[in-house]
Design a protein that fits this description.
Number of helices: 6
Structural class: alpha/beta
Order of helices and strands: EHEEHEHHEEHEHEEE
Strand content: 15-25%
Shape: globular
Helix content: 25-40%
Largest sheet: 10 strands, mixed
Strand order of the largest sheet: 1-8-2-3-7-4-6-5-9-10
Length: 206
């Protein structure tokens, strides 16, 4: 059964963060809060954990549209090809925030992503998510957790999330009620930014 760990966004407990990081480093899966919906994530460097997340979502790892959740823009050069000034300015304006930016993938992507030409980058405006990533030392590969209920697209109550996922993942982080609007997805790989999905993030950043 998964651990249920409560954290406060304004001051996440370092001991609890350490527990979560150890689970990730051991190839475990976590559900954690972001500035939009709750996410299912694993350590980007662990290919077995990536396979597990892909299996849960019913997709092949190399075809999965998972996001890389980063702490700040310093990880960009690890996974993204060099970007122009205009693109960088959009990222600086929008992040941290409720956006996923599709960017050109670099040659140093993790093994499961080697054939991918693009990657989705997220820097959520959520202290819990960013503190976990910072303590881990590299991004989390993440995907949002959908609800089977046709009316509710996303589950927002951490206790209900735990009830449903306790035998599938290793940790459920309770960071309070989540949002039920997903991130705005913007493709920055072409000459003009293209909005793939309009979500919580405003388009004023473009």
């Amino acid at each position: 059964m998964a651990q249920f760990i409560k954290l406060y966004n304004d001051n996440p407990n370092p001991r609890e963060i350490e527990k979560i990081v150890k689970v990730l480093q051991a190839g475990g899966l976590i559900i954690y809060p972001t500035d939009t919906v709750y996410g299912l994530g694993c350590d980007i460097t662990n290919s077995k954990a990536l396979d597990k997340v892909a299996k849960i979502k019913g997709v092949k790892p190399e075809k999965a549209n998972f996001s890389f959740v980063c702490n700040d823009l310093s990880h960009l050069s690890d996974y993204v090809k060099q970007i122009d000034t205009a693109t960088y300015k959009i990222l600086k304006r929008a992040l941290p925030g409720p956006y996923t930016f599709v960017l050109p993938g670099s040659n140093s992507l993790p093994k499961a992503y080697k054939k991918r030409k693009t990657v989705g980058i997220r820097i959520p405006d959520n202290n819990i998510a960013r503190t976990i990533v910072q303590a881990l030392g590299n991004p989390i590969v993440s995907t949002s957790i959908h609800d089977e209920d046709e009316i509710l697209e996303y589950t927002t109550d951490p206790e209900l999330i735990f009830e449903k996922w306790q035998n599938i993942v290793d940790v459920v982080v309770d960071g309070g009620y989540g949002d039920n609007h997903a991130s705005t997805v913007i493709d920055l790989t072409t000459d003009e930014p293209e909005v793939i999905r309009e979500g919580k993030g405003s388009l004023d950043v473009l």
